[in-house]
Batch of 4 targets.
Target 1
Amino acid sequence: MERDQLKSILESLFFASEGPLTPAQLGEILAGVERKEIVSAVEELSAEYDAAGRGFRLTEVAGGYQLRTARENAEWVKKLYREKPARMTRATLETLAIIAYRQPITRAEIEAVRGVDVDGVVATLLERRLIRIVARKDIPGRPFLYGTTPEFLELFNLKDLSHLPTLKEMEEMASPPPLDAEAPPEGSGQQAVGIKD
Amino acid sequence: MTSKVELEIFEGPLDLLLHLIKKSEVSIADIPIAPITEQYLATIELMGDLNLDLAGEFLVMAATLIHIKSRMLLPPDESDLEEDEEGDPRAELARRLLEYQRFKDAAEELERRDILRRDVFTRSPEPREEVETGGFESVSLFDLISALRTVLDRLPKDSVHEVALEKVSVRDKMSQLLDRLRQEEKVVFQSVFEGASSRMEVIVTFLAMLELVKIRAIRIWQEEITGPIVLALAAPLEEVQQKLATEEIEGDGDGA
């Protein structure tokens, strides 16, 4: 298959697909084309969109690729929809963050960090399918263990869990920056903030 | 029936402590226990006055703080001295606060990402679901309560000898506030309480404000961290009035 034809087919697939398309799905559709070739064609396509400054990007999200509008155009795209974007409360975000970083985790363990009951929030997160029950913990009572879902990755534009921003070190937060420190330690929270995607 | 506003979806005692620590500009590692405990107790007392559904965790933390405070007054135990840092009765609390702060930061980090259907959109967005059961936006409940304390502190002290308590209900205050918001696009928090003559009236007004947030009739936010807290209608007035008509207002009818 010609490179240009491959890219054209991929573009159609991304355009028509509702969710992110994984390399595995693409490989199945494009039977006979090598996986490596598909991935490199996808990357080329993505780079072309970026370079041309298109109003959409090919984003790596939840283990696949998806066409998403450019962030800088959000203001206008929003006007398409009558409803305001759903806002998340701090309680929701905090609970989600604890689950994302500490999964699999029980409700009691989440409560130990937040210092407050999380029943309601956990129920809401389950309902929105941002978290799911992944197992039961092998301790008395066999409580549920919660983890995040692919929808969580999609919502926060994350390629996978390893792309979560790095948590700050406790030591770093506890003490004021020492006077002789020249630069923040490598790999600290600061650095991991801007994730390339 | 008591007037209560659900607090559970908001923050807990650790968040309140962090808020107080930040406001006092002190370090988590070296918390001045006496003044922080005092501020903590004053805040939860006020929350109790407001009949906010004070989660048990707030009281547990109050007991913890008092316990730490009393331990700090005791001469250091010799066996504790050997364990250096562990001997500081505040160490465990500091660890919990730091741990919580980490996740608060992580939550903020998440919030800044390109969020689907807020910052970026896919070609066929799913129909949006109703998400939260109301909620403050950038202003936390504690910010509001701090602001309320300022208002209460400024009340003229000589109004103590009220003879006849004016009967004001939460519902009355709600419509008053809505009326005002219809005329003025934005209203500054403090100005809502102008003209209130008693502590009770201030509190009823505050509860009315919380109720309006809860039914998502108004929004409350702060344009800058230290700037004034502002209120505005969150939906067209007709919609709000419809909600008001159907919603059962807790605390209505106790007549304050």
Note: The longest helix of chain A spans residues 35-52.
Target 2
Amino acid sequence: MTTPLDTHGLTRENLLAIDYFLRLTRTLEERLVALFRQAKVIGGLYRSLGQEGESVAAAYALDYKQGDVVQPLIRNMGSILVAGAKPSDIIKQYMAKGDSPTRGRELNIHFGHPDRDGFIGQISMLGDMIPVMAGITLAGRMQKRNLVGMAFIGDGASSTGAFYEGMNFATVQRLPLVVILENNGYAYSTPTAKQSAVKTLADKAHAFGCASEVVDGNDVLATYAAAKRAVDRARAGEGVTLIEVKTFRIKGHAEHDNQSYVPIQLIEEWSAKDPVVQFEKALVDAGLAATSDFEAIHARVRNEVDTATDEAERSPMPRPEEAGMGLFAGDGYWGEG
Amino acid sequence: MPVTTYLDAIREAMIEEMRRDPRVFLIGEDVGSYGGAFKTSAGMIDEFGPGRVIDTPISEVAIVGAASGAALMGMRPIAEMQFIDFITCAYDMLVNFTATSRYRVGSSCPIVVRGPAGGGTHGGPFHSLNPEAMFMNRPGIKIVAPGTAYDAKGLLKAAIRDDDPVLFIEHKFLYRRIKEDLPTEDYVVPIGKANVRRTGKDITIITWGAMIYVADDAAADLANEGVSAEVIDLRSIIPFDEEAILNSVAKTNRVIILHEAPLTGGAGAEFAARIAEKAFDYLDAPIKRVAALDVPTPYSPPLEAAALPDKARVLAAARELLRY
């Protein structure tokens, strides 16, 4: 007996690829926690436990060969893995290594060049990346490349002026931009109700005049479908879409945060809706995958994360004399350009 | 008869660069069919179209942010602030995202942010800013402040061609008051090079922007008193021409730093410190700064004139140093 499943055009191969990225995200984060506890990850560590589904599914709707660009927030490591980020680079970033993509200058997943890598890391001033992504998609249109940008933003960051300015500008310009507004219940310790008076964050779209949609962020296929619709609209020249994904942050803001401010029932309730478990179960129920498929994926992921960890641990720390280099072009530090 | 105004020089630089390089575009408020609040971009939309002369909402964060995003993708945006005062609205974007891009992640972010700065036009507290010091302590953005039409054109071209973000500070008092004959051929003025406007041996006046004319006038008066003053137009604030400063101080042994921004924490403090560190032995008198009062720029002409530095204050400072 199988349960029919609308895969929104995704093949079995696609579905297993999504599962690979989901498992890679979770396993890599678990590894980072271990490294954090060994004091090898020296900066903050921000988990996406329970949010891997929407990060991976939304980013999977982009076409990186076409030049599409995804911009994650701190809890969207899954999205840049989909875009092609290497696990070893991510671990090196967290470990502040000298051969990390930013050579030890920047933290965690704050890296990536939109044109070269297909993703661009955020800065910590929340909201600022929406105007930047507007500019990236504006350039893509000027260059007639028909690329689409996807920006993640949190419920908290949707309070910022930069978010409003960026959304307004992008919508006025009809830019090919998809904005994934992650409503995960809390911005650090502040619940969404203290963040915004609107019940549905997607309603903020009315202020801009862009399209909007609300989707269950723990439903991988529903999130993919919503993102794909928005990407298709963007590529067709129909402008910006704001997608609110409803999900939940199972862990604290960062590893140091015991989230004592979150009612335990909420954590239990949402833990039962784990997006990865739900996705795998749906595939099995539909006869699209067997447990053995997932076991193979898990083994592959564990092996890749082990290899990446070994590589990162062997990497050197940056040389102190590099601290003053690479501010401006001309000293050759970055190989220029 | 000189024909090219300081304002025209800026427009010509933008037009010539946009003809030369399809990656260059202009983005800002009212820059399109209106041609800009000061008509700096008049007619440009007719030649380049709305795709390259982009009108925006009143949204400095979006202007600077979008320009920065486009720059990462290989474009060469010129972002106009309608008045440079409004750059404070985009300060976060500029200093945190744009200026740090290369150092943090190795990504070149070559935008030019330009706009009318400075006082003397009764613009009041929000239309008179001299913003250079706000950016000097946030590494990653170059700062230029031309005082002549020649430098305005040559420095803007250099800024557009530069691989890093450049803050291009135009002095609006000069827009239509300064007229010069400019070369017909293409030229650039290198960023980081000062110009010795007047050579002298008794005292050095280091300045930039519209204050170069105040320094000129003061130097002419001093010449009548038998004092030979050297006037250095710094032109670039970051990076600045330390060699030109130190060479002049070594020659004259007395130095005034003149700027239109408020005194405390102004750019002059940095130059004074550099002279004290590197040319102390050459000094025959204390380093003197002449700058605006430490107040927001007031509106009413008698107040504004009293707040901003002028020739009389430069002369008083010079005489004090000469007597020392």
Note: Chain B has a mean pLDDT of 98.
Target 3
Amino acid sequence: MNIPILEILSKDEVKFIKEKALDLLEEVGVFLPIKSVLNLMEDCGCEVDYQKQVVKISPQIVEESIKKIPHTITLYSRDRKNKIVIGGDKVNFGTVGFATRMINGKENHSLTTEDLIQLTKLADAMENVETIMAMGQPTDVPQNISDRYQWLISLENSNKPILCQAFGKKGVRDAIKMGSIIAGGEEQLRKYPDMCLVMCTSSPLAFDKEYTEAMLEAAKFGLPVFVVSGPLACMNSPATLAGTLILTTAEELAAVVMTRLVNPSVPMIYATWARTPDLSTGGVNFGSPDYALMNAASAQVARHLGIPSASGGIISDSKVADAQAGYEKAFISSILSLSRINLICGMGILESENAGSLEQLIIDNEIVSVIKKFFKGMQINEETAATDLIAKVGILGSFLEEKHTLAFFRNEIFASQISDKLRLDAWVNKGSKDTLERAREIAKRKIKEHKGISLSEEVHLKLKNVIKTAEKESE
Amino acid sequence: MNEQKTNLLNKLYLSVINFDVEMAEKVASDFIKGGFDPMDGIEGGITKGLKEIGEKFNKGEIFLPELMMAAGVAQNGIKVFENEIKRLGKERKTKGKVLIGTVAGDIHSIGKNIVATMLRVNGFEVVDLGVNVPTETFVNKVKELKPKILGLSSLLTTSMPFQKNVIDLLIENNLRKSIRILIGGAPTTEEWAREIGADAYGADASAAVVEANKLVK
């Protein structure tokens, strides 16, 4: 048995979405304030308005570009002992990171480098975290180079592939420098990438100069790029889910074209964060069935185009690791897993991606365990049917002491790491601890027990120097 | 009150409630032609509609898209009256003038626009300087327009420092004491507002209105 792929759009609807996105690129185009790139696009046949800095892209050019995109991306662990493949029907899970605050229970404070270190270490310890998008933006460092610190802390405190933003060309160069120091040279980094550059479009239909320069610099080097398009319905995209989905598709396709110009075969992830607003404040409402709908549909569109996809599937607007966080994250991640978004991000995040939480990371790890076990499905065969055994044990018999039970139970039966399954009195006797308290205790223990990677003193020094140089240059 | 005046005021109120911008502009024009005080037109007609919209919004009976529509209609109606008020050599009384803009290096406008609208709905006069506003421009406009409140919006951690720059430049130009500063935007916090010497922080647009009301007391 296989868990089928959840496809919520019909084949015609997928075509319709794609065609409308192509229409937008052909008729409206995108804003791209980088003259050299506009030149490149004009050279390959696009219509450029240099005054408005808008480029219109024909469907032909988009289709040619789509053909060049790698269907899968392989990212390595820092020690190269493990790798993950992103793409096709696979679903992987990871963290996401634009947090500027840290939440512990109901307490919150501005996120510090120490908080980021703790979050990264715990993410490294969690067996279900496959990629680490730098889990926050530390507020206790010079803000104009906070990206360097994000890269540094993530690379130093984990063994897992790192996804992170960078500020402009310089930011990317510094990130590549750090990655190469650890990898043993730029060629090694290219060959065994354990880094991926994150950039965000500005909806509707705009590419910000700094983020785009970073994306193209990374692409030129050969680093995979993670392109986030996250229009907010009613605000910078139509109030309709379809319109918002189409806008996301158009922006992603524009990025496909741009990145092919500098490196025809560089991997790109179609990272869809299409969202709806809280209608009272205009702020984002991630934990909504609308997020699930649009991004499940996006998974289908991306798969149809042959581009690996990602989305913030484990997501919630709650400010505490509470019931709201639980139900929002569980629902959306389930739908997006079934829809086969290739990289589902969001582990360890609260407040709509603005706050990091150690407790929530433990809980999210459990949510992913549940999903993974579900996806294992059921083994249906003579052995698992066990009718011979049932006959042998007989009517009203017991199975607990059977060899078959011993042989099968570990694989067949899910064991929760953090959910409490005791009877009420037993639970009371153990201290009546709720999920938050249990998660907190587990987080403390896991961080203490975790043996992370250890880089040499020499490497640490070289990495520090990259930061020192960046600080000097930014003054 | 004059029956015709009452009638027109009621139409003005309805035009806001029903998001009818053509009606608002026409009735405002008729009101002026009728020789009635434009200030009354604003207070007795348009503001009455806005108050009701505001209450419904606070109760959660209507939402942002409706609020923005109504506010847009109200603005257009008020413009007609304001032209007449200026022509008569007078000035409209409001809760106060607010200057608002997104700081340098930042092109985000939605949050700022929502705040501007909500402030207008709540009786403030708002001058919106737009996005990516150079620090010097903020200071020059403060000098020129003498607002009661300066609102600074930032949606990027990299543009946040410009909120501090504006405050510092105001201090340098001896303008800081003449104005109250309200900051906001996704990455900003209470803590940040205190750190840079702002007078208030708005966690969202509704909070910004609460703070603005406090600042003009």
Note: The interface with chain A takes residues 57, 60, 63-65, 107, 110-111, 114, 157-158, 160-161, 186-187, 189, 191-192, 204-206 of chain B (CB under 8 Å).
Target 4
Amino acid sequence: MTHDSTPGRSLFEYAPAPESRAVVDLKPSYGLFIGGEFVEPTDGTTFKTVSPATEEVLAEVSAAGPSDVDLAVAAARRAYDRVWGPMPGRERAKYLYRIARIVQERARELAVLESLDNGKPIRESRDVDIPLVAAYFFSYAGWADKLEHAGFGSNPRPLGVAGQVIPWNFPLLMLAWKIAPALAAGNTVVLKPAETTPLTALLFAEICQQADLPPGVVNIITGAGETGRALVEHPGVDKIAFTGSTEVGKQIARSVAGSGKKVTLELGGKAANIVLDDAPIDQAVEGIVNGIFFNQGHVCCAGSRLLVQESIYDTLLDSLKRRLGTLRIGDPLDKNTDIGAINSAEQLERIRTLSEVGEAEGAARWSPPCDLPDRGFWFPPTLFTGVSQAHRIAREEIFGPVLSVLTFRTPAEAVDKANNSPYGLSAGVWTEKGSRILWMAARLRAGVVWANTFNRFDPTSPFGGYKESGYGREGGRHGLEAYLDV
Amino acid sequence: MSEPTRPRRRIPASDRIDVRKTYKLFIGGGFPRSESGRSYEVTDARGRFLANAALASRKDARDAVVAARKAFADWSGATAYNRGQVLYRVAELMEGRRSQFVDEVAAGEGITRPRAETAVDAAVDRWIWYAGWADKIAQVVGSTNPVAGPYFDFSLPEPTGVVAVLAPQRSSLLGLVSVLAPVIVSGNTVIITASAERPLPAITLSEVLATSDLPGGVVNVLTGRVAETAPWLASHMDVNAIDLTGAAGDAEHARQLEVAAADNLKRVLRAPDTEPDWTLPPGTKRLTSHLELKTVWHPIGV
């Protein structure tokens, strides 16, 4: 082993520590999960889902056509009318607890499959995604028989059939955020996972069978944007829940106008992560790294705009660059991996394009030295300095491991810059001074403010955006409102 | 109402010639004429001339949004106790103008004086009801969240921002107050389009607000054709939410406004099929519809 004294290079190399794939039993092809059974699409087609780390084809999946969407909505309606709607909350609760338990029992299998299909490091799918999935089901299970105490009246009613469309960045976790409160409130669901990450949702369908969940309560239809559109616009759907881009969120808001469908949207963000001059630098650096490089930056609430007080700029940047040099990029199934693969060729192209725009507009680009695998979709952790508020990399959501660094002189200027965005999903504040935290937290127009931490999630903690980051909240008591007729 | 018609002769109650009024808009705490220079005749329920009102234009709507945005920081930053007292003061001042409101409601809505008195009293009481909510709503809808980790985590409601409100077309005072008070009590600022055919109670309320402690720009009142100004408010990129109650009964108009509102993902309070019965207890829906929930995390013990 050669000693490499380059700043930012780690002293020690790590031997590979891969998690075994053997725990996952992949089928060559999957149908649609409608009415409690896997069925072949009636008017749909098929597509392949690949591992973004290797471009290996993992399985063939069905793309639901309009008739399939009809069948799924009809199955959900039947289940709502005959079984799930009339069922007492205490019985619904027990199904949700069962699901939570099975998720815990099959956690390793789910984590490996999630990392395979999504490209995220196994450390994250194992320690964050899947434990949170179980926690959301467990937490909402307990609401199912307590709805009259939730603050929405003495007998809040469910809405009926919920159509849910989720993204590829936290495939199973977003499924849990959608299905757990919907079912607890007494609705039935038709859920469409993202085109590039359908596999854990299909495994979840098996878990529903394993839990003996009544047929039709949960229906999973795979497909691309057209399938999602058919579901959103279906007249038999009473409620739409969507997580994804602001652009698609606006299309949905337009398409449901006049329909009376209840809608919740959890959309894009361009969060400011603000570091004040009295911040604990080492903690802040960890928070910045977690804020933008967690899940390859494929996070709607990622801290993608770093706002640093001028007086500590040099110190902080040196520390940050040193820390980035220690990040390990590569095989998502390796337990030492910090940064996995970009989810798709399409997303990689978007990250590359915006990064090129950043350079063309005059910002300085920096990445630590790192070797990227030959196959698959990869992008190194990247910093842009000298970024102004007018630059596209300071305004647009990149959804990748790219951090734009800006500076400020006073806390008031930091707040102005942070709020200078059509988005308003999240924000971060780093300072040792409590009164400053509360002062800033009150002024940041964002749905979640992380102070001296970042990217924390919990089933009891409401999450959702201001402004063009969408409307409605997911999590906690507040998350029930989206699925109740109130 | 759109084009001036010859006023019908009104039989004077005495020999004195009455002073006919031409009202203006209420924007940023002042009373400007419509930028368009236009006005229209307001008649009572039987078609008799009551007054001239300003016919607001697209430019007026935009000016009102600017005024509302300018007022937002201070009003949303005021203490809940202060906002509650300001709303209570509005009720006090309305009480002093009771007979004028009764006259206007009776004439505009074509109802008897006793019924108009009931409506005015209910409107005053509604201000008081909402005034009391100022320092309570955060406790009712906020929370501390028992997260599974060493963090203090709390959620609290904040005002959505600048809100456009289409006031009811029929209930010219009670309906107006019922949609206005719940929006401003939490710290939002408002552009409200008055009932097109029955705008006088809204105009008189503007005069009440102007002499109350409500900061200028918190409430901006547009009179005229709702169909002319509402699309500009619905599509305005600096308006955060829109209440379509005033479009009740016109599903297509409401749908178009909801489509326009999607341009910047405004929060939309949809139009009901028919105008609600404003005498019923209001509940908290109109309060909570114009709030955003903010969640704050901080580590414990680090």
Note: Chain A has 14 helices and 18 strands.
